[in-house]
């Protein structure tokens, strides 16, 4: 297809998707209210101390922020292709690009996910007194999880024609993120989840395919890195590390934490985790598109 | 102003456009024509008539025509007919002798002849009406009216199934148009050929390469923005399309033009083009199709469909009707045999010339009607047209399908549809028309619709075929009036075997040939026996066929199968 036509199609697809998304105002308002509401609930529950430095539940807040991101992305995307399937199949005959449709869908869902992410983090910032630099970083990592879950959602939406099946698949995707995302200590779990792995001090192989594990790792280590010059935060980090160690948070090697404390920017765990997440997004986007293309093309 | 005065004005407008009659001629003729009416009705002097003729627009007259009671409309139709007849017999100024002849004609009109025609038309007895017309007025080649607006007037004419009036007279082409009422009356008057085609090739040295579609007697043709008329006469070839004609009418009010006045126009404005991959023929040879090679759903399907046909695929539930449609768009596989488009194997290059409307709604529920169409157009054609042009195009398509009033309505709001099932189907059709496809495939276009809506949808589809577009639909139980609209039927039995493919009208002929005894073999119920009794009476009423089909318990499909064998044997 002519690249100019593709660009034009993407532009109009995006405009159309925006119109569709903003058509039901009530639904739009609700989806935008849910994010700050969950943020408030989460911040309220995970505020052991009004001072962030003293707030030992801060990692929990971050973890549930990521889970919320997964939730927002999935809910926003899981019915999208099911809903549009007939239209897309019809438009395909007229030469409307499937890629253009998929990209625009991705873009628009990401945009709405971004708004929810910002709203969530603003509330977190206000209630937990999180510094702006961390809010920006946290928002970025949360947005990555939102995008990944959009990929998951579109993937499911391409696979099935039934909204019921799609709804039932949502917990299948969310629960493992909670279980294996890193908040619950792996040490307390059945050792069989380690499969061939004999080193029980690391995350089990099954957890290594869980995007929230990388996102959580990135957000925790990033929080350390980006507040490296702040003594107060460093104090808090020490507490976080203590907390993580106490809770046998094994996905992050204790040694690397110690090195973090010494030289927060020397270790790039957060950076590599973000790269992994971006890789994850790329792979799920491509796979999702292949499935979408095949399912649409084959009826 | 009384009724006749308006009619006179209408006559005057038409006849003046011909440039061959004077006002006084017309009035004189008119006065003579209306002998028997009260003096009051015709007591309008020539001067007075000229006076109000200048002041009153044709639009106002049409307004009046729309407003008058339906019972009188046919009188106007007759009078219009009279004017055309007047032209038919007069190549020069009207003489008293000619007027006397007109009077005779009028007398004839007063007799049951034309009233009978109108009565028959109103009662949808077209063949008899045509026969009567042939008998009494052999000069009339075509009768049809074009109207799409949903005014009382138009609905009334809808009942007559009339779309255009085209009278063959002599050597000029006349067009009466009213934007405000969406009324167009084309009158073509020429002894030579008149060719109607949806599109033509670029008009340069050789303009004859497009697919010709000769207008046949007693056929209904719909002419819209995508159509044009090619008129060949001794003065040269004239190409007209509706847009050009409308342009010529000017931006305000209605005027009448003679072709002779416009033929010298810049030929560039008549240029149009035909898509290089325009679909003009669809053929299948021993086609087996389905979703897995082990289990063909449709078997040994054979058909040959030409452009401009409305084809119905019929058969019991699960017989493979949808599968056949899906093989066109590669959603089902061709397992054996061939499916040819323009005599070559079907391929994706034709996809953009096809529109497939699945049984479920293909509209975006979270957009209103306008946005559905607007984005559909933009995605297919990019920035080819401005927003204003698209807006006009959308209005045109919606108007042609009689759903202009829902242009800005949401499709779905607060958990329920805000437009009816029939309107949604029409909108689906409008989307395809927007895309300007050659082949429309519709899966059960009438499912879930009321009988009235279903009939209207089929009428709309039939109208689309008049634009040289081919429409193939799946249909379960068409009513007789729907069945009559089909050009061809493809019938499947419950096992997916193609048991009958032929012109829909042929079925009736074959029915007449079936011996009662043989037919009894296939009909067991009392009701079916009664049907057979009717066949024995040699009646070819299609109701019979459809009644048999409507009865789920009857073995209609077996009968079709039998009929197929019968014709083979024969």
Your description of this structure?
The complex is a heterodimer of chains A (299) and B (570). Chain A is an all-alpha fold and 299 residues long. Chain A has one domain (3-297). Helices cover 75% and strands 0% of the residues of chain A. Chain A contains 11 helices and no strands. Chain A has helices spanning 3-23, 25-45, 58-77, 80-93, 98-128, 132-159, 163-180, 211-226, 231-246, 254-262, 269-297. The two termini of chain A are 22 Å apart. The model of chain A is unreliable at 248-255 and 257-266 (pLDDT under 50). By secondary structure, chain B is α+β, with helices and mostly antiparallel strands. Chain B folds into 4 domains: 1-110; 141-274, no CATH class; 281-496, Rossmann fold (3-Layer(aba) Sandwich); 500-569, no CATH class. In chain B, 44% of the residues lie in helices and 19% in strands. Chain B contains 23 helices and 21 strands. In chain B, the strands form 6 sheets. In chain B, strands 15-18-19-12-20-21 form a 6-stranded mixed beta sheet, sandwiched between helices. A 4-stranded antiparallel beta sheet of chain B has the order 2-5-4-9, with helices on both faces. In chain B, helix 1 (3-18) crosses helix 2 (23-33) and helix 6 packs antiparallel against helix 7 (96-110). The longest helix of chain B is centred in the first third of the chain and has 20 residues, at 70-89. Chains A and B meet through helix 1 and helix 4 of A and strand 15 and helix 14 of B.
